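This week, look over our next protein:
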Amino acid sequence: MQINIQTDSTIANNAGLNEHVQSVLETALSRFRDNITRIEVHLSDTNGPKGGADDIRCVMEARVAGYQPIAVTEQNASVHQSVSGATDKLKRAIDSALGRLQDSKRHATGKHAVNDTADVEEAAE
């Protein structure tokens, strides 16, 4: 799972921030590790130097194998809160998307299983 982190000019993109974001994402999304190819993280300060409450935006986009990209947005007072909130949203979105993908596969396989069972019963008669 590749994680790319980008910031605007008002947020310092340093090793500490990169380590924090990667740690949060890897911990929260560890069970999806085999399905996710890449995660893009974009951090920006919507009000810039003016300040203001809840003005740090975190946009995350996950590339999931066999599925359309999944994007979420969180806006909060600090970088850490925004990253945490976006990570929670992304985890739920991926869980939901993969659940739908698995359900559609299960239904497709289930139809064949029902037909196979009916064929066996007809042959037994």
Remarks:
- The longest helix spans residues 79-124.
